[in-house]
Amino acid sequence: QTSSSATDSNERPDLHIQDNKYPTDQWTNTPDTILSHVGRSLYLDENHPLAITRRLIESQFSAPIFGNYFEKNPVVTTAQNFDVLGFAPDHPGRSRTDTYYINEKTVLRTHTSAHQQAYFQQISRNEKTKPEEVGYTVVADVYRRDAIDRSHYPVFHQMEAAMLWKRPEQNPLSASEETAARIRADLERIPRHDVVVEDPNPTIHPQRNPLQAEHHSEAEVEAVAAHLKRSLERMVIKVFTEGSKAAAASSGGKVDQEPLKVRWVEAYFPFTSPGWELEVFWQGEWLEVLGCGVIKQELLINSDVPNRFGWAFGLGLERIAMLLFNIPDIRLFWSKDERFLSQFRAGQITRFEPFSKHPACYKDVAFWLPQAAAAGGASAAGGAVPFHENDVMEIVRGIGGDLVEDVRLIDNFTHPKTGKQSMCYRINYRSLERTLTNEETNEMHEKVRTQLVNDFSVELR
Ligand code: FA5
Ligand code: MG
């Protein structure tokens, strides 16, 4: 079966994923087109840009402090992916519009944070045998029902990392100045840099980015945050510098690149506080490359390391690889085209040479939503299926697959008299490998229109 839409029926047979069998149920919404990506392990394929990028980042977070790991099985429990990390029961990330469910209790992990607890427990177990390994990196494939554009793909790769410091067992808060001093000493071992980084907000903001006041002192958190930020800035600068060298080499020494622009943005994650995202200016826009923060102490207490605390981050490996190799479209990472693959060699950073740019063909689809299904509305009374943008994405993905470059909402209005909501999406069809014919584009678009009507009872305009 290659059907793309989530099925609501109980009739779907068990899903076979790697060597395991999973029963399906009402929650199952993972199409075979997504499951077909499981097991590619691109990050282990040494000549693949994702593997080269992984190695480069691992070299910045390496032994003896960091063990470098990967997790091949993407199937985790909802407890691992959400509950343990403190996601509220009604957190939108849990919904079937955002997450690929195998069944009610099992998902394709949406982030590598699903493994945080296991790695903290490992640090605790190895306390005697590997006392200096107080951090880890872990790389894995992750899965999300998400937007479609050149920096979003439903299957992508993350690298998660964390580093912990010991705190006194008795009264850690009263000894926090001593802990902070140890972290600041570690900070001094990370070379400084002279790139100007935009970071307009205070480390701690009482409402937007609070201190975990019952557990941590301001001095400790300032020290951990400084260590985290300098570590990550150094990583991004390394990536940028390697990319620039490659650009200069391929253009006979001319440096045609814009200077590096980086900024910190406040961000909320259920398992960190305070927390941030790091963005890099790339090809005319801010590209979010990672999320990070000071780990919630409850999580550490529940993971056998109550007397430690520290930072964690999770980065998008594709996003970093795009900066490093100047790869313009995230779909390329899955390409089996030799014109792509032959450009990369283990241990070498080179600039990607686009081998073709085929014409784009965009088509719009405009429709009225059935009234009870208004976007963003709570539950759908009267039997109408609630409408979520990710469902449009999933329909388009199922029909167009990698032939769709991006999908954008270009119009959204509510009729002043009837209260009916109208939306218009622009679908940009473009193959990375060849020129699409009019007929095949029309055929795909017609299928999208039909499925929107069938699945959501929209009224086409
Ligand atoms: C997370 O996934 C958190 N687990 C990160 C984290 C770890 C925070 C540890 C704190 C501590 P977020 O949803 O922002 O956060 O995703 C992290 C990164 O994954 C993004 O910054 C981006 O680089 C990448 N990413 C997210 N969605 C996609 C996508 N659809 N395609 C490609 N990359 C993506
Ligand atoms: Mg984010």
UniProtKB/TrEMBL annotation:
The Basic and acidic residues compositionally biased stretches are 9-19
Cited SUPFAM superfamilies: Anticodon-binding domain of PheRS, Class II aaRS and biotin synthetases
Query: Where is this protein found?
Result: Mitochondrion matrix
Cite the residue spans of the region called Disordered.
1-23
Chain ranges of the FDX-ACB domain: 356-461
Protein name per UniProt: Phenylalanine--tRNA ligase, mitochondrial
What is the superkingdom listed in this entry's lineage? Eukaryota
Similarity comment: family membership: Belongs to the class-II aminoacyl-tRNA synthetase family.
Q: Which GO BP terms apply?
A: phenylalanyl-tRNA aminoacylation
Q: Which reaction does it catalyse?
A: tRNA(Phe) + L-phenylalanine + ATP = L-phenylalanyl-tRNA(Phe) + AMP + diphosphate + H(+)
The protein's matches in InterPro entries, at most eight in alphabetical order, are given as: aa-tRNA-synth_II (IPR006195), aa-tRNA-synth_II/BPL/LPL (IPR045864), Fdx_antiC-bd (IPR005121), Fdx_antiC-bd_sf (IPR036690), Phe-tRNA-synth_IIc_mito (IPR004530), Phenylalanyl-tRNA_Synthase (IPR002319)
The catalytic activity of this protein is classed by the Enzyme Commission as 6.1.1.20
What is the native source organism of this protein? Penicillium diatomitis
Per the record, the coiled-coil ranges are none
Function according to Swiss-Prot or TrEMBL: Is responsible for the charging of tRNA(Phe) with phenylalanine in mitochondrial translation.
Record-level GO cellular component terms? mitochondrial matrix
Aminoacyl-transfer RNA synthetases class-II family profile domain segment(s): 39-354
Q: Any idea which UniProt keywords this protein has?
A: Aminoacyl-tRNA synthetase, ATP-binding, Ligase, Mitochondrion, Nucleotide-binding, Protein biosynthesis, Transit peptide
Q: What is its main location?
A: mitochondrion
Under Gene Ontology molecular function, one entry of this record is:
phenylalanine-tRNA ligase activity
